[in-house]
Amino acid sequence: MTCDKRSDGPEITIQSVRLKDFNPPGLEVDDGNDAESDIDPFLTSPIERDQSVKEVDRPLHPGEKYFLPTDKAELARLDLQHMVWTRALDGDLFKAPLIGPKCVLDVGTGTGIWAVDFAKDHPDTEVLGIDLGKPSPPGIPSNCKFEQKDFTEDWGHTNTFDLVHCRMLFSAKHDARQLLQQAYDSLAPGGYLECQEMYGMPLDVDGSLSGTTLESFFFNGVLGLKRRGNTSVLSLPLYGQWMREIGFEDVAEVHRALPINGWPGGAYKAVGEMMLPNIRAGLGGVYTRLFANGLGWSTEEADEMVRKASEQMSDRSIHAYFPAFIFYGRKPLSAA
Ligand SMILES: C[S@@+](CC[C@H](N)C(=O)[O-])C[C@H]1O[C@@H](n2cnc3c(N)ncnc32)[C@H](O)[C@@H]1O
Questions:
Q1: Which atom belonging to ligand 1 lies closest to the Cα atom of 85?
Q2: Pocket of ligand 1, candidates 85, 94, 109: which has the most ligand atoms within 8 Å of its Cβ, to mutate?
Q3: Residue 198: which pLDDT band, with cuts at 50, 70 and 90?
Q4: CATH topology of domain 14-330
């Protein structure tokens, strides 16, 4: 599919947004011998939401700085997303080789679940989470704090943190390069930035996504994001290069997969099984808005596309996954 609404040629095509050479280790189709995973059935169950509120009417942060909803269903989706990520990262919260961090910042903290888990694992570390709203997750340890702050504005901290963590901020409207620079400025010399981000266009292992409704669904989502002024979703593969240009050293790039359902065998099956309800819960809130506000579709058209995509989402013969990138790098000890 191409999008050719502009006279000077297509903005993006499915071919142009497919990543080359993305090979997450261990991602293979279930050969029929793999049992279902042992994860809690609660984590693979649908996330319910108040159906009396239309998707396009779900509440947002004041000022509409961010287009995803802020209701209970979205918070439940974010908590499930945390489980998906930690499972895909082998149970880890981060991959950077940190030693004895004293001060950590979680940017765009969402429900705050990552910050709380990090603070519990590191009782001697002060953890701060910032977001457009101030979250109040259960069981906040005394070494974890939250502040309401727009991360596109001045953070008010320089040379402070031993780790700056950013996860799934690609959907937020921001200049990614500026975010990396702000992170650099706020880090103490020797501190690490770690970005954990998903590329919004899925890939497949065998061509089984090609030509499906699902493929054009996600492609239109990326196009909608782009039309709304979001460039980070497509520039994600450049983060490592940008980090080096800003001054980070020992920049590392780790690849993982977030399968759309439980089609893989081995360790990725559980990730896919949790991913399915997570994507389904995001379909309406994320894509109805993107199609309606980003591409100018009618709500009926958007709803119909969401319905069809939701049906195809659980088809285990479509071996699709979202590429997950983990970038980390260190601010030099010599940097002031
Ligand atoms: C997809 S969620 C990810 C949440 C969390 N990082 C996680 O992985 O669980 C994106 C978060 O970014 C926040 N956000 C978006 N734009 C922001 C901004 N300009 N300043 C602060 N937070 C922002 C949203 O409110 C939302 O909580």
A1: 8
A2: 109
A3: very high
A4: Rossmann fold (3.40.50)
User: What secondary structure does DSSP assign to 126-158, as a single string?
Assistant: EEEEEESS----TT--TTEEEEE--TTS--S-S
**What pLDDT shows up at residue 5?**
42
Q: Which of 118, 132, 148, 230 to mutate to test the pocket of ligand 1 (most atoms within 8 A of CB)?
A: 132
CB 284 within 8 Å of CB 309 = no
Residue 166 Cα to ligand 1 midpoint, Å, equals 9
Compute, in angstroms, the gap from residue 84 CA to the centroid of ligand 1.
17
| Contacts made by residues 150-159, CB under 8 angstroms, sequence distance 24+ | 150/65, 151/107, 151/108, 151/179, 151/182, 152/178, 152/179, 155/105, 155/130, 155/182, 155/185, 155/186, 157/105, 157/186, 158/185, 158/186, 159/185, 159/186, 159/187, 159/188, 159/189, 159/336
The residue ranges of every structural domain in the chain are 14-330
Of all protein residues, whose CA lies closest to atom 27 belonging to ligand 1?
Answer: 110
pLDDT tens digits, 260-302: 999 999 999 999 999 999 999 888 777 887 888 789 998 888 8
Which of ligand 1's atoms lies nearest the C-alpha of 79?
Answer: 9
pLDDT tens digits, residue range 34-55?
Answer: 777 778 888 888 888 888 887 7
pLDDT score of 4:
39
Closest CA to 242 of 190, 183, 186, 189: 183
